[in-house]
Amino acid sequence: MSRTGPRIAVVTFPGSNDDGDARLALDLLGAEAVPVWHTDSELPPGTGGIVLPGGFSYGDYLRCGAIARVAPVMDAVRRFAADGGPVLGICNGFQVLAEAGLVPGALLRNRSLRFLGRDVTIAPERLDTPFTHAIGERRPLRMPIAHGEGCYYADEATLDALERDGQVLFRYVGRDGAVADDDERANPNGSLRAIAGVMNARGNVAGLMPHPERASETILGSDDGIGILRSLVASAALARAGGPVGVGA
Amino acid sequence: MTLAERAVEPLHRRLGLTDDELQAIRDRLGGRAPNDVELAMFSVMWSEHCSYKSSKPLLQTLPTGGPGVVAGPGENAGVISIGDGLAVAFKIESHNHPSAVEPYQGAATGVGGILRDIFTMGARPIAVLDALRFGEPNSSRTRHLVDGVVRGVGGYGNCVGVPTIGGELVFDGSYQGNPLVNVMAIGLLEERLLTLASAPGPGNLVVLFGSTTGRDGIGGASVLASATFADSDPSKRPSVQVGDPFAEKLLIEASLELIGRGLVEGLQDLGAGGITCATSETADRGGTGIRIDLDAVPRREPGLEAFEVLISESQERMLAIVRPERWPDVREVCERWGLPVAVVGRVTDDGDISVIEGGEEIARIPAAALTSNAIVHQRLAAPPAQRRAAPAPGAPTVVSDRLPERGMDPGAVLLALVGSPNLSSRRAVFEQYDSTVGADTVIGPGHGAAVLRVKGSKKALVASTDGNQAVGVLDPWLGAALSVAEATRNVSITGATPLGVTNCLNYGDPTRPEAFWQLTEGVRGLGDACRALGLPVTGGNVSLYNESPAGSIAPTPEIGVVGLLDDVGTLVGPAFTADGDAIVLAGASGAGLAGSEYARLAGAAVEDGPPSLDLGREAALQAFVREAVARGLVASAQDVSGGGLAVAIAECAIWGGLGAQVRLLVANSPAVEMFGESPSRIVLTTRPRHAPALELLARQHGLPVDRLGTVGGSRVVIRLTAAGATGAAEDRGGDVADELDVAVDDLRHAWEHGLARTLGWDS
Fold this sequence. Notes:
The complex is a heterodimer. By secondary structure, chain A is an alpha/beta fold. Chain A has five helices and eleven strands, in the order βαββαβαββββαβββα. In chain A, 21% of the residues lie in helices and 23% in strands. In chain A, strand 3 (47-52), helix 2 (72-82) and strand 4 form a beta-alpha-beta unit. By secondary structure, chain B is an alpha+beta fold. A seven-stranded mixed β-sheet of chain B has the order 8-10-7-11-9-12-13. A seven-stranded mixed β-sheet of chain B has the order 23-25-22-26-24-27-28.
């Protein structure tokens, strides 16, 4: 099938588990998802966006993402991000971005100290970002989490600044859409201020713990993740065309 | 035995071989005595775990062939075609004793081992189901084991990126000293890539890749898996292997790339018996020999003895047979995935496994002597003299007449059952597993059979594991046949056609005639049921010696079934779907409460026997439900099993968020009607306009069928009315048991919190 959609690099670290799922979901949205190996120092020509997928990069026997952040491919990711290209980290990809300092905060062990695999409900804080602009009216969004270390943490001053500057991208909410700060079922990993996803200050690098790529077809129980991925695909098309990517763009 | 006596014990006995077996080894070596290295090799390969020396004659009676079977018993996993050039590989295996000694690593390496059996054949693993059985849930030891095993299953499966989509968690006192950890894995492959564990072509290279070889897991097969043991004996902990799921993930990707590019002639994983097992099995299947150079084996530590390298069960290793000209490509693939790789030997034409160390040959054994020509024992089977336990002093002897007693609220009994350790939601456990990685999970754990879509098609695979030890302990033939009936029924009620059966036979010490009789009866029940249902047994695993000082486990045939649904759009689930739907029961209840969850709850001695099974009726029932689903007559379908009809209806109500108004005719006693577990019954719902067609179809299949009531409201209400057929029943129907009337919300609460409360995980 020939695709006219933008080229999106999906990085495969040793231990990445959701790279194939992410490529499949992006392909279904008309993008050209291209696998990129962890030792590659350059992105494929014409790359308009990057996904760092879920999994257990390098086994994550150390802190999650601590080894992946020094992988050769991450230099290329940093350069791409510095040039303003859209980068989305999902689950382990979010942990890698946090370890790399590309998004603020850290992901700690879940409050229960157990791995959690189940559906959650999240709501976007804003709809004018490269990762949320195509979400549309269907909100909140239902999709799975699957992680042992997804408790979002930052110090109080950082959290205040994130909220003030609009860098909180998603929060865990109850099914009614109300923010679930202290609700253990709705915010199961105990993330501070129920934060499920954040952006960098420029608004072109984002990470979230839930898995939109596993909620991209109705047969899988939910296709609520499509809006996030479709936003990324559109942003990648814009980036490739040389247009500005970022909040409000 | 004193220390002095132990010291003079000959080596073969210390390695678990009998004097007769030593003589049989000499016979296979042309009369000469084996040296110590050879003896160590024989000790693992002739262990019960590797040789099936007690069970082989029984297993040969099982039906194994059938349309679509691409690979059957004897291969690493069964493989069955699903059309369009695709096939499904599946197998279940035990890791019971390692999990008893070290629950986290025991369970983790159990997952790793069964996954290797799948991808060794060229199939990408797409799902794991774990069937776990423990002793009394309120004992601290049980809680320790549950916690460790669940973390181990998750720690490995989650990291390796294969979803855990189902399984079982059962508590029964007989597992107190000997828990069961049975893991089933499913893989999907292109049929043209099917790869066998064979070593063809003398001159080909023998390549070892994956983790390095160390001292872990020495004698796992012989020491742990093939002898009874005292629980948590710390001296056996070094025999438990240690898992590295990251290495396994790399091994999966590298192996599938090697197979996909046609770079290997044969592939075998290293599990029990390590290098000895992998070389002898591949050589024997290929009709060849293998010459192996121990100095070439990449090692984890210096100072390993030759026999240790040969029988080490270090995890995450694979043996590949490679044409010399393809070696550079094989090495490139392995190194790109970061895996140590080395040529460790060559395929020969002499039929022997020969071992070289320091340039000298230190062992030479015919490959067949270690595998296909290993010793087989004809064990003695004898039924127990007294097959029923005497009632406890003061206990009511006829359960069915005593409970629910007049004045007792049957709704309270139902609440207690849905919240009981074996029937409540398993959510607290399965939420610790990743059930959605791979983006194929249509129905995950928690609501009957699991369903996976097949990417790029309309097809779906449906899988279930079931085992019935509660009846098995009373009648091992019936327990096994019921296990097959339930596992296949769980698949059929979705509309899927069962393709084949894999089994994990967990039994006691085969040298005890009663335990061997249980195994014999179990295999007979398995075979009878599979023949009646027209299904092949495509492989599995036998775990014997499941005994501890506390006694033997209840005989536990764990059955795994995979089915195929041609169009996932026709999938039917168990939950009630719409107000006003008619509730129809296909099949009829039969007498007998023994072995039921109700009897366990009542705590009464069981004297009425377990319910009987008519395999012809079961086959007709499953054919009926599949046809009914295909014709679009079914809105929901749920099988009647643990907790009986009332629990089945309660689950449909809880999952659908809809109540039910039901009227039951009392043909037996009220307890049997509501809570009895007689098999071959399905609760269906259907749009009222379809009810006559559904009932007609059931009758055409020769099945009893009964319109029970209607879906709707927020309560489950069951009224008992006299059947009128017999005077006795009429009397009971009139005067026993009040109407059952419980709010669905209350049922849900009891069901959702029962397990966590049982295990002390809830505050």
